[in-house]
Amino acid sequence: MHAPEQLLLAAPRGYCAGVDRAVQTVERALELHGAPVYVRKEIVHNKHVVETLRERGAVFVDELDDSIPEGAITVFSAHGVSPAVHADAERRNLQTIDATCPLVTKVHREAIKFAAEGYTIVLIGHAGHEEVEGTMGEAPDRIVLIETEADVDTLEVEDEHKLAYINQTTLSVDETRGIIARLREKFPHITGPRTDDICYATTNRQAAVRQMADQCDLVLVIGSKNSSNSNRLVDVARDLGTPAYLIDNADQIEEEWLTDAKVVGVSSGASVPETLVNDLVAFFRERGTEDVREFEVLREDVRFMLPKQIRQAMTAAAEA
Ligand code: 0O3
Ligand code: SF4
Question: Hey, which family's this protein in (predicted)?
Fold first, then answer.
């Protein structure tokens, strides 16, 4: 069995402030209101997190349907929801708690503002992703989705003087920069947010992997298959020519990846708890790797307040 000589742990990695807030929202809701707590979609795109919360009494549903009893506590996931989902919840008298990340809400606000001013909005993002569905729902008639630079070339708009762009928060920094440059080239009057909408956590995790990857023979990114930001970390390493794989845990490592790997870099997506990194480190230590180092490129200090329904319920519980 081959053991790498050295493990590098990219920092920052793992939970961002929006994920921490969303997961805590479900945990607190379970403590304050008891099980079951309904959650629309996966609260964050991580198998382990979802499974752990399910064991504690969270019930994950794909849509708000009749399986949710009237009046039930229902949490919206970190990726955001469209106004139609809010309206549906209201019709069903659900007690909703919105765990949408404030940085996703910021993109929704941009969409609302541009739409109100009569702009056509180009949304850069991945088709079918929940965040994209939520954002598009703010102005379905005004938003057109593009995914690549090639999509810019075929894009036709009615009035290029009334054109704006926004983007999904978890995209590749480099790719998005390229798409925006292409948009500006083709539509010189296009407007957008002051900076792009890629969030601090996405940017920082990619920056750390970018710096770490050329010192590694292999990069392992912990994250689930449907996690956009985790997949982008794999892309960053591969673009630099370093083999990289996305894994939920050590069971998914294939022996042949390790054959010539002296230095293995590890990172984890924004929806990945640190326990999973610790488990992976323990796996390599058991095989004989002794040299385990942090590879820190910067520190983060971002925190978000819990949703107001949770804060109010916590205050009420403390006073009771
Ligand atoms: O958006 P993504 O697939 O990366 O979602 P994750 O893995 O749950 O990570 C949190 C990101 C998020 C809630 C939207 O920005
Ligand atoms: Fe918010 Fe960024 Fe985390 Fe998404 S990745 S939940 S936008 S902080």
Answer: Belongs to the IspH family.
Q: What is the per-residue pLDDT across 96-108, written as a single tens digit (0 to 9) for each?
A: 999 999 999 999 9
281 CB-contact burial (10 Å; exposed 0-12 / middle 13-18 / buried 19+): middle
Any atom of ligand 2 within 6 Å of the Cβ of 49: no
User: pTM for the whole thing?
Assistant: 0.98
Give kind and range of the element (H or E) at residue 266: strand 263-268
Q: Which atom of ligand 1 is nearest to the CA of 168?
A: 15
Residue 53 Cα distances to 26, 29, 48, 206, 291, angstroms: 8, 11, 9, 28, 34
pLDDT digit string, tens, across residues 120-153: 999 999 999 999 999 999 999 999 999 999 999 9
Mutation pick for ligand 1 pocket among 47, 123, 131 (CB with most ligand atoms within 8 Å): 131
Can you tell me whether residue 152 is helix, strand or coil? helix
* CATH architecture designation of domain 103-186: 3-Layer(aba) Sandwich (3.40)
CB of 271 closer than 6 A to ligand 1? Answer: yes
| Fold exhibited by the domain 17-101 | Rossmann fold (3.40.50)
* Same topology between domain 6-15+200-296 and domain 17-101: no
CA of 256 to the centre of ligand 2 (A): 34
Give the CATH class of 6-15+200-296.
alpha beta
> Which of 43, 103, 272 to mutate for ligand 2's pocket (most ligand atoms within 8 Å of CB)?
103
Enumerate the domain spans of the chain: 6-15+200-296, 17-101, 103-186
